Amino acid sequence: MGNYNWKAILSEIYGTFPAFGKRPVIGITGNFGDKGCELAEGYYKSVIRAGGVPIVIPPLADKDVILSTLDKIDGLILSGGGDANPLYFGQEPSPLLHSINGERDLPEILTIQLAYNRQIPMLGICRGIQMMAAVLGGDIHQDIGHIPNVLKHSQDLGRSYESHSVEIATDSILYSLYGKERLDVNSFHHQAVSNSGERLRITATSQDGVVEAVESTEHKALLGVQWHPECLESGKPIFDWLIKEASLFQATKEVHDHVLTLDSHCDTPMLFPQGIDFGKRDDRILVDLHKMTEGRQDVSIMVAYLPQKEECGKAYADAIFDQIDAIANRYDQYIRIARTPAEVYLNKQEGVKSIMLGIENGKALEGNIDNIRHFADRGVVYITLCHNGDNDICDSARGEQTHSGVSHFGEDVIREMNDCGIMVDLSHASEKSFYDALSLSRTPIVCSHSSCRALCDHPRNLTDDQMRALASKDGVMQITAYHGFLKKTGEASILDLMEHLNHAIRVMGIEHVGLGTDFDGDGGVSGFADSSEMLNFTRHLLMQRYSLEDIEGIWGRNFLRLMTQVQMNYEP
User: CA geometry: angle at 21 spanning 113 and 122, to 5°?
Assistant: First the structure.
């Protein structure tokens, strides 16, 4: 007889505590057949062998079901199956199109896009690689028979046999898993990826040029293979990769559960005149409620930016703050205006996001020292003294050196900001203005969105000497995601951002560094392009083995420590 003693198994489960491990949960998209949802056993058995917990995602185009499922999983497998309806991807059906599955396409399209927005690790297999590419901006061959000298890609052999080989790029995930440039695989398809799009790149092809694998161009955990690794003994490394990435994603989510995440500089209000609804996911802006939720971002410091050449001042800034107030009032269940570190921590505890207010360009003061107290009473936490041009407070890094540093009026401004509990922000300031303000201010100063000149020689960036001087006065430098301040030529990526962060930490110490993206002020780089990708930044911090305490400091504790010191003696 078999082992039917289920009580003995229960006893084993409850014999030690904790009873359940932290194995990552992997969702697998189900096919649809005569009896409803179907899934070949190779998928879930491969997940279990690699150390994950499989669950089947039924093909239902119910947004609440999809979103709730994605909230519960740590990784996603897009399984194989029949052809997709080409109408979803802007194509008319070819005569060579096989049968399509009307129940499956839309649920899978929605699942892929929503999972991508949430940074969930994805593995696409056979049909799955094609769907991933098509949803993320690529294209599919409806049939590969037209390709010259095409190989036989639908084998008669059983699924556990290799039938042809693929050539693997040496800078790819697959090469890191297998350590070789040629791999024998099985093959069961007549469609394939024709164009990987910008978010994916081709990393393996067969001898006839058919695309056999893709991965992310954005340094994310995305991998697609045209063959069926779940049927091959050689397929295990691919599932091991997914489980490793899913475990990392699980850890990333836990970090965001416990750590307050703050972006110290966001220019989204500059785009409000376009008719933006902050409660909708809008491609015109990089920060909205949906993206903040997807990226698990807690705090955004939104600035009133005052253009250098326009006649604008106090009323201009107040009008922007009125718009932010209106957002907070409209969506008060989800987001609030915060003035102090205590308020943002309380908001996180209550599951509510925070907006803090800043001013970019001291022109907002209109040369009137009394306006500092006005803005302090309004809740402004910092004022960037200047922008890309000199003003009546100080010289800019991009200015004419009008005052040879901080002006006499600027000295009064800094003293009054100290008295009113507003942080002095020296991003955009010239070196002379920087050192003048550092010596004048009685409280620590911040550079809300600056990077390292040693890595990118731009006047907006800080020299190592400036960084050391800032740290010596207990100030904080917030690394920015603006590509022109990260890299002199070419497009920057999240890897360049990490380089600047690491350099600043080496020079200043980890307690003096944070993040100020400059989103919607031309900030955003590949892999960290908007608020939904905050999780990817944390993933890279974990990959570089930063501790939870280190990550907490980088994500906001350092900045809020400075804010606490500045606000300590202010009485509204």
Answer: 20
Distance CA 76, CA 29 (A): 8
- Of 184, 219, 250, the position where a domain reaches its end is 250
pLDDT per residue as tens digits for the range 344-376: 999 999 999 999 999 999 999 999 999 999 999
Angle CA(405)–CA(411)–CA(413) in degrees, nearest 5?
A: 115
- 568-572 — which CB contacts under 8 Å span 24+ positions? 568/421, 569/419, 569/421, 570/376, 570/419, 570/420, 570/421, 572/376, 572/377
Active site residues: 126, 228, 230
Q: Same structural domain for residues 225 and 313?
A: no
Residues 349 and 297 in one domain: yes
Range of the domain at 187: 6-250
Domain boundary at 250, 271, 295, which?
A: 250
Give me the number of domains the chain comprises: 2
**Number of Cβ atoms within 10 Å of the Cβ of 290:** 16
The confidence score (pLDDT) of residue 20 equals 59
Q: Which residues contact 99 (CB under 8 A, 6 or more apart)?
A: 82, 83
| Statement: the pTM of the whole predicted model exceeds 0.90 | yes
Report whether the peptide linkage leading into residue 444 is cis, meaning its omega lies within 30 degrees of zero.
no
